[in-house]
Structures are given as C-alpha cells and as structure tokens.
C-alpha cells in the first residue's frame, strides 16, 4: 500500500508585472519573473525556507514536486502550481495538489489567509508586515537619488527586511499547516476533485483574443473619450469633471444640487434645464461612463504573449453556492450585444474607421462596450460553440418543489413566461399571439418572485420601467404565489428544516421529497445537495427579532467583504440551494463534455464556450448537456446553442 506524505509550500516571487492586474499565468511567464523564497514542510515537521537567490532547493523536494505519492498543499494553490511549473520547468499535475483556500471556501469560510487564520483563531497568525515586504522585494521600485536610481530592491539593500521576509514566508506555511489539519475533516464528494482538476485545465488552456481588434478598440476608445473629457473640461472649468464629486460640484454651481449622479437621474436633470450647455455636460458625463477601455486593457495586460489569456475563472468563487467567479476580464459581467451588424462593426474597428462609427452610432464608446464579448475568438481553423441551459433555475426549483404544472411545461419545452402568465391570469397566453401582452408580467414575476420576493423585488427587477404600475405589484405577487403553491411551501419547509437542524445538532433533517438534507455539526449548518455536495454555513444560530425568530450565520458579506453575521431565511436558502444545484448541473455537463474531447475555454453560470473543429455539431453538445443526471431523476434539462466565429450573445 502506498504511503502518502504531505508537502506544505509557500513561495515569494518577483516580477515587473502587477500580479493583481495580469493574473498568475502572464505573471509567471514574464521574463522578469523569479521565485525568491521557497518555504516548505513535510507533514507536521518544522518549516524550512530556501533563499533561492543564494541557495538551491534540495533534490528530494524537487523530486517530490512531481511525485504522485506526495500530496502538495498551498493556499491558492493555482499560484504555486503555475509559478513552480514555469520556474523549474516541471510538468505540474494538479491532481497531486490540495488547495487550503478551496477547503476553506467549501466550508463557507473566508478565502483570505489572514482573515481565515483570524476566524479560526489559529495559534499562529499570518504576519501583518506582508504587504510592506512584498511591495519592497516583489515589485519594482521607483528610481530615486536616495536609492541610487535602482529599480529593484535586493536582499543586500536591507538585510533586516530580508530576514523578516523569510519569517513571513515561513509563517504562511505554518498557518497553512494548521488550516490543513484543522478543517480537513470536512470532506466533499470525489467528483468535486474532478471538477477542480477540470477548472485548472480550463484556466490553463485559456481563451484567445483578437489582438488587433482589442488594440484598435483601446486606441479608438481612448481617442474618443479624451475628446469628450476635453469638451467637458471646457464646459465645466473642472480639472477632472469625470469625477462624480467634481461633476456634482459643477451641477451645484448651476443650481442643480444632487446627492448622486446616475444613468437613471440624467434624463430627469436634462428635463429640468433649458440650458443647452448644461444638457451637453450631462450628455458628455453619460458618454464617458460608457468607456470600455478597462475591459480591453485587462485583455492586453493578461495576454501571455500567444494572445491567449488564462486564469479567468475562480473555482468556488461564490462560497454559498459553489459557483465560479470571474477574474481579470470578468466574463460573468460583460455588457450584452444588441448591435445587429456585428461583423461590419468589428471590421470598422479593425480598420480604425472612427469617422464611419461616429456617423452610424450616437455613442462610439457604447458600441465598443457592446463589442467586448466579440474580442474572444477561437484559434485558427476552429469555431466557438456556445450552449446554455434554458431557464435552468426555473427548472430546478420546479423539480425541487414538485410544482407539477411547471415541470410539464418544461417537459414539452414550453415558454415558462407565457405559461406562468396563463396560470396567474387564468387565460391562454401566447408569445406574439393571444393575450401576448401578459407575457411581460409573467416574465417579471418569474424573474423576481421565485425566492420569496415581494413588490420590492419586482421593482428592483425593473417592473416599473417595464410599464407596470406600483399599485398592481402586490396583486401580482399574490397571483404568482397562488399559482405556485408548492414553491411557496418550499420556502417555509426549508426554513423550518434549517431551524430544526440547528435546534437539534447531529440529528439529520430531510425534506419530504428526500432530495435535500440538513444537519448541524460543530456549529456549522450543513445542507447536503442531491449531487452529494455540501453547502456550509458557519456559526448558524436562531435569534429573536421583533418579527419573530430568524436564522443567522457567519460569512463574507458580498457588499462589505467583511466576515460578519448575516441574516437568512427560507426563501434565501432556497435561492442558494437552487443556484447550487444549477451549478452542479453545469459542472457535470462540463465533465461529460471534457470526457468526450470537447475543449471548454469559458463558462458563465449556465453557459459553456467550446473551441471546436469546424465539423463539430451544435446538436451534439446540446444533447450531452441535456442528458439526465443520475442524482436528479425527473429533472428536465434542455440546452440550446449556436456556432459563431467570435463570442457573442445569440
């Protein structure tokens, strides 16, 4: 029987590039990159630190970096794997690595090493001097007379700092050791390891950018926005009128005092004045807000030299659902494209024909914003196949709640917005047909009300902008809930089951349909999904409030980014569960596609982007994605797709 040992690792590096802006892959492949310190420890042994500027790593350690019987661990292991593979020219196998950050995220804990150590109350804490030391040794410095015009700090420039840097690196390994052994008991099913391996493969494969197109888009956008900014400076007399505080000051000087400046407020302000100059200033401020340079610049910065950008996805980036998060260019948050003449407009950008663009469109920056998706292209001789699940969350919640009429709609691949409106208003509704005007009300209700939302949720989804009147919103909520009694019941059932689990630690609780399980263990609320994956809510408890008992847990607040107590309730927990199941549907589909030889280069919530040979059939991809899942009997999945020479929304 093979005896496994564990090698805990942390490194400190130097590169002329900014890691946060370019990502690990471009950072590690840059000519200036090098590893400065390599700290390591086997199992629970004391940590050693190798100063790679003056000494070499022992052969045993080098050999163990590729030895299958040695488990390698690191916090945010993707960075260590990428850097070590590049620097030592080793074929690093992700299946031999364990990431303590991923372990923490699985448990609903913070991903940050410093924050995690604090939350766990570890004996050894990450040293707070890290940022200062990294800024000093890991990044270029500004040449000055005082530092004799050097552009980099080396150990001999401050030996005390260097010795502290070694201690800092050692301490990180000590913290990681504690984390590994403290939270290692919280296991996840084996398929999650496979999904993590696939995630590393997709990140390493990267996705190509149309370099000429991106470069020209940056040049055009910069030229146009500089022109807008110069004109706005002339009108306002401000040094930087694109700064919202300065622009508010300008408006105040014109008798228009506002607390904020938003896209929604701009038309109202323009209606309030007859002054053409003020109107133009507001228009220019809006145009400047459309600038797309940041996304395009992120693409250029992240280019590995082969015009592919890598490291775009953070596995388990959303630790309440396990969904991926976007990095660098943020594929999960790209503007939609509504321009019909995409081919023509892309060619105008490539030709830098600003005059024609300006003639055809009111706002060139807005056009460039809509073209961001199209900057991603397949390699030569290939095409993209883009496929996504149809109404995946609506399908999952119907299946989970046992809402039979909805499941029947999905079985027949019907339009859920029409069907929902028909259920609510008790009349037939057809898109572009009989009572078609009601479909919009069905759509907004579907988008806003599935997780216990009320009139406020309808408004946040744009109900008023879509023509609904505020007075009809409560009635719309009631009609939707009356038409979806099983879903409405599910919110309460989940809330009750969670409270029961918290009140009775170690005694498992299941929904009547046996699909979801709940338990409280070591102060952690655990929700077991149909796939076998577990969601974790740290420190979950029941507290009294003026409105009765409520559920709280400790987690990273998505707004404040702080680890703090968060309120939750049945509807919100159902949202977490549904989105987590939807994530698992996509993850299993991605693994099946990968097993069949399809090269996935991107994925966004319910969508995959495949770089495929010219003869690949869209129908084959959609068929694989729609295959029944063993752990979700009766769940109706359906995928639609299209092929395209560049990424876009169909």
Defining key terms:
650 residues; alpha+beta; 20 strands; six-stranded antiparallel sheet; five-stranded mixed sheet
Give a brief outline of the structure.
The chain has 25 helices and 20 strands. The chain is an alpha+beta fold and 650 residues long.
Our measurement of the CA-to-CA distance between the termini, rounded to an integer number of angstroms, reads 53 Å
Coarse shape: globular
Strand content: 15-25%
Q: Provide mean pLDDT, rounded.
A: 93
Proportion of helical residues: 40-55%
Secondary structural class = alpha+beta
Please provide the count of β strands: 20
Largest sheet: 6 strands, antiparallel
What is the alpha-carbon Rg in Å? 27 Å
User: Which strand order do you get reading across the main beta sheet?
Assistant: 12-13-14-15-16-17
Number of helices: 25
Low-confidence stretches: none
In words, what does this structure look like?
The protein contains 25 helices and 20 strands. By secondary structure, the protein is α+β, with helices and mostly antiparallel strands. A six-stranded antiparallel beta sheet has the order 12-13-14-15-16-17, covered by helices on one side. 42% of the residues are buried. A hairpin with a 5-residue loop joins strand 14 (524-528) and strand 15.
């Amino acid at each position: 029987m093979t005896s496994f040992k564990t090698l805990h690792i942390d490194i400190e590096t130097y590169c002329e590039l900014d890691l946060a802006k370019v990502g690990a892959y471009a950072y590690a492949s840059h000519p200036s990159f090098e590893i400065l310190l390599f700290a390591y420890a086997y199992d629970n042994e004391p940590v050693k630190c190798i100063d790679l500027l003056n000494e070499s790593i022992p052969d045993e350690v080098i050999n163990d970096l590729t030895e299958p019987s040695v488990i390698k661990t690191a916090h945010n292991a993707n960075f260590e794997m990428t850097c070590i593979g590049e620097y030592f020219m080793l074929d690093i196998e992700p299946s031999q690595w364990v990431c303590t950050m991923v372990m923490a995220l699985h448990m609903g804990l913070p991903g940050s090493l410093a924050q995690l150590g604090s939350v766990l109350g570890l004996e050894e804490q990450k040293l707070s001097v890290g940022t200062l030391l990294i800024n000093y040794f890991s990044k270029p410095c500004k040449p000055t007379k005082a530092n004799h015009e050097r552009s980099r700090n080396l150990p001999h420039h401050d030996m005390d700092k260097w010795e502290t840097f070694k201690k800092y690196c050692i301490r990180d390994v000590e913290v990681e050791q504690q984390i590994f052994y403290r939270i290692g008991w919280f296991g996840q099913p084996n398929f999650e390891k496979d999904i993590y391996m696939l995630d590393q493969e997709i990140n390493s494969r990267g996705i190509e950018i149309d370099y000429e197109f991106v470069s020209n888009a940056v040049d055009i956008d910069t030229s146009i926005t500089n022109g807008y900014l110069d004109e706005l400076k002339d009108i306002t007399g401000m040094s930087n009128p694109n700064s919202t505080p300065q622009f508010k000051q300008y408006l105040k000087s014109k008798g228009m005092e506002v607390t904020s400046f938003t896209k929604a407020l701009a038309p109202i302000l323009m209606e309030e004045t007859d002054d053409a100059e003020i109107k133009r200033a507001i228009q220019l401020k809006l145009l400047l807000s459309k600038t797309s340079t940041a996304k395009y610049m992120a693409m250029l910065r992240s280019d590995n030299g082969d015009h592919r950008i890598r490291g775009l996805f953070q596995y388990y980036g959303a630790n309440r659902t396990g969904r991926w998060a976007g990095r660098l260019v943020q594929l999960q948050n790209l503007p939609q494209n509504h321009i019909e003449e995409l081919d023509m407009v892309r060619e105008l950008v490539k030709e830098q024909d600003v005059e024609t663009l300006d003639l055809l469109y009111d706002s060139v920056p807005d056009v460039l914003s809509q073209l961001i998706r199209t900057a991603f292209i397949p390699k030569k001789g290939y095409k993209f196949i883009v496929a996504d699940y149809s109404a995946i969350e609506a399908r999952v919640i119907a299946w989970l709640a046992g809402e039979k009429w909805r499941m029947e709609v999905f079985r027949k691949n019907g339009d859920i917005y029409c069907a929902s409106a028909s259920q609510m208003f008790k009349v037939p509704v057809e898109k572009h047909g009989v009572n078609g005007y009601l479909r919009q009300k069905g759509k907004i209700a579907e988008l806003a009300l599935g997780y216990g939302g009320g009139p406020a949720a309808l408004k946040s989804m744009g109900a008023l902008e879509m023509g609904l009147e505020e007075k009809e919103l409560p009635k719309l909520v009631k009609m939707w809930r009356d038409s979806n009694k099983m879903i409405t019941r599910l919110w309460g059932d989940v809330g009750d089951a969670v409270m029961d689990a918290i009140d009775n630690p170690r005694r498992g609780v299941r929904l009547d349909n046996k699909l979801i399980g709940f338990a409280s263990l070591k102060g952690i609320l655990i929700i077991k999904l149909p796939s076998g994956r577990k969601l974790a809510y740290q420190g979950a408890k029941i507290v009294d409030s003026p409105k009765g008992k409520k559920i709280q847990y400790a987690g990273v607040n998505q707004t404040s980014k702080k680890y703090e107590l968060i309120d939750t309730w049945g509807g919100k927990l159902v949202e977490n569960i549904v989105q987590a199941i939807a994530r698992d549907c996509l993850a299993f589909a991605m693994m099946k596609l990968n097993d069949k030889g399809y090269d996935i280069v991107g994925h966004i919530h319910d969508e995959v982007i495949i770089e495929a040979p010219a003869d690949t059939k869209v129908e084959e991809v959609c068929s694989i994605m729609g295959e029944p899942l063993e752990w979700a009997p009766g769940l109706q999945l359906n995928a639609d797709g299209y092929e395209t020479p560049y990424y876009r929304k169909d």
